[in-house]
Amino acid sequence: MKKMKVGIIGCGTISGIYAEAGKRFRNIEITACADLDYSRAQTLAEKHGIPSPLHIEQLLASSDVEVVVNLTIPSAHAQVSLEALKNGKHVYNEKPLALKRREAREMIGLAREKGLRLGCAPDTFLGAGLQTCRKLIDFGAIGEPVGGSGFMLAAGVELWHPSPEFFYKKGGGPLFDMGPYYLTAFTTLLGPVRRVCGSARITFPEREIKSEPLAGKIIEVETPSHIAAVLDFESGPVVSLVTSFDVQAHGMPFMEIYGSEGTLSVPDPNTFGGPVRIKRHKESDWTEIPLEPGYADNSRGLGVSEMIAAAQNGREHRANARTAYHVLDIMHSILDSSESGRHMEMSSSMTRPLPFSPGTDEGEG
Ligand SMILES: NC(=O)c1ccc[n+]([C@@H]2O[C@H](COP(=O)([O-])OP(=O)(O)OC[C@H]3O[C@@H](n4cnc5c(N)ncnc54)[C@H](O)[C@@H]3O)[C@@H](O)[C@H]2O)c1
């Protein structure tokens, strides 16, 4: 197996786990990293043994980088990815794919024109937890899926994130920040969405940062912080999704899928592991299902490795831009519905990726 040379752009909070991907996946070699703030690239390089901390233009021009992993803030995703594609690099983006649908379409068009790969987080759906759910649904363990629900209810990122402002600007909020985990899980399990409706509100127009180093600073909130949506899937199920940064306490599950024969309790889609539980018609208790072999711990970077393996084998990668675009389109359509008071028909679609076989479909096999 041939390694591909990977450069990281954006050396903030999430970059540490990606910086370790070269040690975990045999087809990834992290050769360089860059950030608007060069000192952050230096710190990441020193901590994780990355050979070249660079300025962004240097990384984009480097012949030692074949794949750019874009870990910048959402408002910079499109610009950084377009530059990387223009420079002939494959790109794997953190979520969401871009802020605007138009930007995302431009990225997809450019990648296609240049024959380059464009992948996007999350890759948690490749983990053992969600792959076990996939197998159970495909094998009819809950009968025919008729509905589902997803709840991402939290009190706000300004309590812990060191630079939480972007979470409350356009392209942030609980829907655009955490929605991709839920929507990628639902669509890779149930297929594309046909139409959506939603209602959204901004609960606190200003939020005070409680975490260091910016404690006390006020954030002007630009995007809804509590959003309730209903999704009609092409295959039939009707799913409720609530995402919120305004909930102080709750007793709701992460995700459930309701079938004609029973209910599947889906693990937190922001993780790779379990528990996966099923309760069938007339059973008095939930049964915990052993996880399929695979990635059950924090395996961020798995999607990059799988994309590289797919590029080398000439097949479609699973954490792909078509699914990420559909997810972005769903999120925008939910907010459009809230503003217009109407259901929104989806014009984008996706195809469920094949089930994932660890050991053959990524760079470890
Ligand atoms: N923090 C998390 O737990 C987490 C988890 C999963 C995914 N993500 C996603 O990862 C991305 C980054 O999140 P984060 O929490 O690491 O943010 P962060 O603010 O901690 O880090 C972002 C970094 O990008 C740099 N940056 C901003 N604009 C840039 C540009 N134009 N060019 C180069 N560098 C630029 C910033 O200087 C900063 O170092 C976001 O898309 C977020 O949704 C974050």
Question: Topology of this structure?
Answer:
Elements (H helix, E strand, L loop, with lengths): L3 E6 L5 H5 L1 H4 L3 E7 L3 H11 L3 E3 L1 H6 L5 E4 L3 H13 L3 E4 L7 H14 L3 E3 L7 H11 L6 E9 L19 H18 L2 E9 L4 E3 L9 E3 L5 E8 L4 E7 L10 E5 L2 E5 L10 E4 L6 E2 L13 H12 L7 H20 L3 E2 L20
Parallel strand pairs: 1-2, 1-4, 2-3, 4-5, 5-6, 7-12
Antiparallel strand pairs: 7-13, 8-11, 8-17, 9-10, 11-12, 13-14, 14-15, 15-16
The structure holds nicotinamide-adenine-dinucleotide (NAD).
Strand residue content? 15-25%
Strand order of the largest sheet: 16-15-14-13-7-12-11-8-17
At the fourth CATH level, what is the homologous superfamily of the largest domain?
A: Dihydrodipicolinate Reductase, domain 2
User: What is the tally of beta strands?
Assistant: 17
Tell me the helix content.
25-40%
Features:
10 helices; globular; Rossmann fold; alpha/beta; about 375 residues; nine-stranded mixed sheet; Dihydrodipicolinate Reductase, domain 2; six-stranded parallel sheet; 2 domains; binds nicotinamide-adenine-dinucleotide
